[in-house]
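Complex 477.
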Amino acid sequence: MKLNPISPFCYEIPRTGDMRVPGRIFMSRRMAAGLSEEEALKQVANVATLPGILTAAMAMPDMHWGYGFPIGGVAAFDWKTGVISPGGVGYDINCGVRLAATGLEEKDIRPVAERLVTALFQNIPTGVGSTGSVKLSVKDELKVLKQGGAWAVRQGLGDAVDVERTEDGGCMAEADPSVVSQRALERGLKQLGTLGSGNHFLEVGVVDEIFDEDAARAFGLFENQITVLLHTGSRGLGYQVCDDSLAFMNKHVKTLGIRLPDRQLACAMIRSPEGERYFAAMACAANYAWANRQILLHRARETFQQVLGIGPRDLDMHQVYDICHNIAKRETHIVDGNPRDVCVHRKGATRAFAPGHAAVPAAYRHVGQPILIPGDMGTASYVLAGTQKAMEESFGSTCHGAGRVLSRKAAKKQSKGRAIHRELADKGILVKWSGRSTLAEEMPDAYKDIDQVVESVHGAGISKKVARLRPICVIKG
Ligand code: 5GP
Ligand code: MN
Ligand code: MN
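Predicted structure with guanosine-5'-monophosphate bound:
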């Protein structure tokens, strides 16, 4: 695939064939030199052929192959003339990340780290089919789908301020539970408040380095502070919503008379019954995911208090922010100098709104939206802030993680004969996991270098480095 450098941190895939717009990849020269993502680049070019796409089909430095659209991809479509595609959101609808900071420092946790990680692993259900964190009736489940994070807070599973410091206030108003299938509802019934498998995690970390004092102060972060970072999504319910939607979109797309370069790009016009049905179901799954992360934060609070024998005031575990990185949103962006009503697909990409934007919580508005970027369980994760340049260049979006560099299978092969948990323990990181292959598939070598990914988006100016977090205790699915 031909990549033309157009600025020091941005490359273009020129328009050819059916492409309506070019492709655009944000990454450093160094990352571009080592890039081996032919398949994912082809996917960027494929996305550029879809009706109503604006400016460019974009990808972030953490890009890799995904279903139809690449992971690490951003694509914005005109609301009136564009399409919406389940493949542009992903199977784990509103997979996302939540960060809480505490009043504790590293020295408070080191002596109890083993007990803490054991208790977290006991109190938070992990693994593929994990269930049983909260008892939910069907009636309650419908409320979860409508209300999102606020539902959990109403049950006493969190604080009102948690919801205020969540993207979209933890609720997409477009949710309509009547379009969610029985099968999806069944799958969601027992899984609320569970972590799930593989790449999902809850991590106790420490603020290792601050890059931007002002923003760190606004986000309530200081050096040596203990943090909790968690990553999960909408579990079986979201997966089923995606699967159900692909089934009807695969049929529907044939009636649109467009030529798809890949059948995994099945889509519908946003303003069509099929497009609206997907959007309303997707919003339900998004709300479920926010309730899920809300409950997990509550479980983390309970567990810390139990293990340390302290009350909520001394623990002071307050939410910094919660972001989604698999979602489609209706937003207003300036395109060619004019405000446009657009549908932004972020798949393995994070919203990165600028200082002053009304969607940024008031306490953070002067520094920009907090962005949460997990790296891997053996290295680091980052907190960044949104920028004006992101609004201008990437529809207010940035990367979502380090991104996989090894497939699960390749990672398993490379880890043969190694004891990953011991390698981590030697670095002072305690890990508990449930899946038989989880540690091998998720070892640090399976992911790109998070420092380079973050340098790329910081260099491109689409986000600004605020703080680096280092892991201490990790529980994995
Ligand atoms: P996803 O799996 O949602 O595409 O990506 C989430 C990102 O989380 C990955 O790209 C990877 O960088 C990061 N990640 C996966 N597992 C862990 C973990 O155990 N700890 C941390 N800090 N990051 C992780
Ligand atoms: Mn994710
Ligand atoms: Mn996920």
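The chain has a mean pLDDT of 97.
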